[in-house]
Amino acid sequence: MRNTIGIIFGLLLTSYSFHAQELLSKEKAVELTLENNYDIRITKNNLETAKNNKSIYNSGYLPTVTGNAGANYRNNDSEAEFTDSSFNNNNTGVESQTYNASVGVNYTLFNGFNRSNTFKRLKESYNLTELQARQVMENTLITLFIAYYEVGRLTENESTQKQALTISKERLKRAKYSFDYGQSTKLEVLNAEVDVNNDSITYIDIKRQLNNAKRDLNVVLGRKVNTPVAVDTNVLYREDLVLNTILSEANANNANLLQSQKNIELSKLDVKINQSGWMPNVSLTSSYAWNRNISDPTNRISLISSTQTGLSAGVNLSWNIFDGGRTKTNVTNARIALDTQEIRKNQLEEQLERDVNNAWETYQNSLFSLKVQEQNVQTNKLNFERSNERYKLGQISSIDFRQAQVNLINAELSRNNAKYVAKNAELQLLQLAGNLLDNKNF
Questions:
Q1: Which residues form a coiled coil (predicted)?
Q2: pLDDT at 78
Q3: By C-alpha distance, which of 296, 342, 274, 287 is closest to 113?
Q4: Residue 111 DSSP symbol
Q5: What is the per-residue pLDDT for 89?
């Protein structure tokens, strides 16, 4: 039995090294996450892409300018016969060169409002991407604090279990002294050793869970997984939350609901874009060209060179009067898609009201449970202190003493759990209300 105890404490010393750990404040955790988290960094890139897409350079409002240049060379044999058959002329190796250069401008004057509605859609798509980025940030912050508070919970659990182990070791020492002086039986010593072993195993397991939780937290923070870290275990709760206010804020600010509204606006623009297929297109073309031809003479009056320069402009109109019903089909489908988005919004409003009420009830129950658990800890602590005194006086058995100790451990573990469950429930409520990013009380 003693060898088992030695092995357990050897594992404690060799498997877990104690480093100087930074105390990571909640504010610093948020800062690191917004700066380094991989999901947020990807989202920032997506937002930058959407910003580029809504630029004037992607709108179709600017003209297109093209430049062309070319050169041709010919070497031909020719034979000419005039209408009076009075003169035949054979020419061999006649060379000619042609050079040209031009600059053209094309601009769409009107395309059935397709361009303006498409430009509006690009801007709305950017706004939608902003909302999606906000949702990613909210979800990441929730993930952050679930990990952060899990480290906090396990840190406090570790402290509780460490105290329990210390008490069990003192009890084992007392049992050995009592046995050596004939004041107790060997059974008391064996029971104490079993409890020390069990508490040691539990302590090792909590240490393992804590180290795993710290690695999870570091992943969310976007840094090396084995970076030493300690968290602030002080938790403050909002005292100004009111259900009706949260419901009102959720209807106005919830990220999912705002995205649904933005999808409706995009669907309306899709209808207008498809309707442009029924309208004419008017475009303006203009160019400035230079052409030069050089050729060998084939007779006395042959043109040996010519140069042309000039400006040309034109207006083109095209109207697809009937496209086989394609535009009609596209418009009909776009209207169906719009109706679908409106149905989804109505569904989301109902689900949001349900989720807020459920989260509120969970939050209130968690606060009540925390209050009860805190009272329970005080009661069990008082009971353990009295049991400890009576055990020292030999008025209760080791079994009764152990039961009082186990009751105190369970009460403290339950209090620790309730403490962080309540805070996570509060943050979930703030996310539903659309206030999480503005919250300063993490």
A1: 331-358
A2: 66
A3: 274
A4: S
A5: 57
Closest CA to 418 of 220, 144, 163, 156: 156
What band does 88 get if pLDDT is binned at 50, 70 and 90?
A: low
Task: List strand residue ranges (DSSP E) for 161-280, in order.
Answer: 229-231
Report DSSP letters for 267-302, one per residue: HHHHHHHHHGGGS-EEEEEEEEEEEEEEE--SSTT-
User: Nearest-CA neighbor of 332 among 262, 265, 274, 276?
Assistant: 274
* Mean pLDDT (whole number) for 198-208: 97
Contact between 369 and 414 (Cβ < 8 Å): no
Total of domains in the chain:
2
pLDDT computed for residue 411 by the predictor:
97
Same domain, 87 and 199: no
* CB of 404 closer than 8 Å to CB of 381: no
Q: What are phi and psi of 181, to 5 degrees?
A: -100, 10
Contact of 424 with 146, CB cutoff 8 Å? yes
Range of the domain at 171: 2-36+112-280+324-438
Three-class SS of residue 185?
coil
Q: pLDDT by residue (tens digit) across 361-410? A: 999 999 999 999 999 999 999 999 999 999 988 899 999 999 999 999 99
Residue 103's SS3 state is strand
Residues 336, 222 share a domain: yes
Confidence tier at 75 by pLDDT (50, 70, 90): confident
231 and 328 assigned to the same domain: yes
Q: Are residues 310 and 267 in the same domain?
A: no
Residues 105 and 163 in one domain: no
